[in-house]
Design a protein that fits this description.
The complex is a heterodimer. Chain A is mainly α. Chain A is built from 5 helices and 2 strands. In chain B, helix 5 links the parallel strand 3 and strand 4. In chain B, helix 1 runs parallel beside helix 4. Classes of the chains: A mainly alpha, B alpha/beta.
Chain lengths: ~100, ~170
């Protein structure tokens, strides 16, 4: 566990960089982490996913990818285009949630 | 390889329902974590990508020492006698049970899973020798299977990859 300063706010993260307290998350933090993850700008599509994850986070953990596609109506292709190279972890990081639990 | 991204290649050689899932589950997890995935289907594993077979994969109780009656709600670990496994209807029965359990857990079917993997960028290939042996053609395969390739081609395209044989 360590403390990290993002967008002027200090947040608690675990060894893998996942936020430990979803309450510390702000939209500015999301935009900042997205840049670190190689997403220069968060579009409406990104926010649809992030908002869904924030609303459906069980115990502070991000939902699984299939839960996200089923819940947002986005296709697998769209999800992988919005968050290329590892959407499971990227979405969780940006949404300020823990690593998703569950295999699908 | 042009980039240094982690790459996992699965060789799918089995067509039984229970053996179809490992590569699908791990492949999906890999893609979710930003790892490149290649799936190579050979021998019975080609049932997974054969349009006519993919929705009809089965799990036979015969020769499966791990399959116990608790799947049917009988408590404990009472075995299914081999002769019983050979009775007509036992394989469809076991298959229906497994499919039902998967459905209740929200696990996609094999066809759906392959579609998800393909949409997420997994590369899929059929083994040339098996294709010739079974008399199949590219059009017999589901969408997402990119080509029929030789074992040598597979070696070239998986240079530096971690290979898992199922």
């Amino acid at each position: 566990m360590s403390t990290k300063v993002i967008a002027g706010k200090s947040i608690q993260v675990n060894d893998e960089g996942f936020m430990l307290n979803p309450g510390e998350w702000t939209k500015e933090i999301a935009a900042e982490i997205a840049k670190e993850e190689g997403i220069p700008e968060l579009t409406a599509g990104h926010w649809k996913v992030i908002d869904f994850c924030r609303q459906n986070a069980g115990d502070g953990k991000s939902p699984t990818l299939r839960t996200i596609t089923n819940g947002t109506g986005l296709s697998t292709k769209e999800l992988f285009t919005l968050f290329p190279k590892g959407p499971a972890k990227k979405v969780a990081h940006i949404a300020g949630l823990g690593k998703p639990e569950g295999c699908v | 390889m042009a980039d240094n991204n982690r790459h996992i290649a699965f060789i799918c050689s089995k067509g039984n329902l229970d053996m179809a899932y490992p590569a699908l589950v791990m492949g999906w997890a890999a893609l979710g974590n930003g790892i490149d995935v290649t799936l190579f289907f050979t021998f019975w594993g080609m049932d997974m990508i054969n349009k006519a077979r993919v929705d009809h994969l089965e799990i036979p109780p015969i020769g499966n020492a791990s399959m116990k009656m608790n799947m049917m709600g009988v408590p404990g670990y009472i075995g299914i006698p081999q002769w019983m496994g050979g009775l007509p209807g036992m394989t469809p029965f076991a298959t229906a049970l497994m499919n039902d359990k998967m459905k209740k857990l929200g696990v996609p079917t094999v066809r759906e899973y392959l579609q998800m993997l393909s949409d997420a960028g997994a590369k899929m290939y059929a083994c040339k020798m098996s294709v010739d042996m079974f008399g199949l053609k590219q059009e017999d395969f589901i969408e997402g299977v990119q080509a029929i390739v030789t074992a040598g081609d597979f070696m070239d395209m998986t240079e530096g990859a971690q290979i898992i044989f199922i």
